Amino acid sequence: MASLSHSSICCTFNSYSSPLHDAIASSCCLSSRLRSILCPQFVHRSLLLRIRTLTKGMIKRDSSRVMMLTMGRYSTTADVVQHDQMEGATVPPLPQNRIVVGCGSVSVDYLASVEEFPQPDEKIRSTDLKVQGGGNVGNACTAAAKLGLKPRIISKVANDVAGRLILDELDSDGVDTSHIIVSETGTSPFTYVIVDRQMNTRTCIHSPGSPPLHPHELSSTALDAALSGASIAYFDGRLFDTALIVAKEAAQRHLPILLDAERIREGMDEFLVLANYVVCSSKFPQAWTKASSLPEALLEMLFQLPQLKFVIATLGASGCVMLEKASAG
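The structure corresponding to this sequence follows.
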């Protein structure tokens, strides 16, 4: 599958914090390893699998392409590629129902770029410093808004400088913040991000907001309003107690659930059982399944999670790999 030259979408919220925002490139080696383990005796007859390697331009650094895929606009990732080629790698047409609900982390990120990562007890200078909105849900919903979707966020900030910055940026980017609870006390979430230009890595030091979002703060009326008319619900595994209530209600309404599985978190198993689509870091599948290799771990996830339709593991600069459960037809 040839790489596509898709211009990146400019987003105010940064793209350093989430597996969904890792650069996508082909991963033929890993795909070959997946094929090698998919022998007939290993694949259960009720489970047909398609292996996909995603190329640059299909998702790039925005999760809304995945959201569009799961909202039913395309039946396979190949359809997205074919459409991009026909349209000159432009953004695909919008689905009829464009409402996306995200529940999880929003924050302020302090991004300091350095020539190389500092040694312990060393003082260095940054080459660039940016202060902007972050958090997995904040990033994903901003990307979705930039592509013409209508995202809403369920989260919590404090009425402080950081909280107001978060809300103002999201509002200006077209994200519905009316479902974000604002506390008159406490602090908003923030993250220090060290961007190592030499190794092309980022190191995040996160400080959660306080007090956290508690289930009693999201009334049944507010939950109904947030989910009303939505096409998909997106979760990053944070704000566990409240987010799980939202996820269960979304499942009751037969909304597709997209999970951003960055790492093992409290209650992750309960989210995974409900998820229809999972995008995860390269380390997550083996950490969760205890499998000896990433290909085996991805396959194990599809076997263990009956609701799961596909799983994507991002591989940083090496791209990503996607394993999809296909219908017998």
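Residues 240-252 form the longest helix (13 residues).
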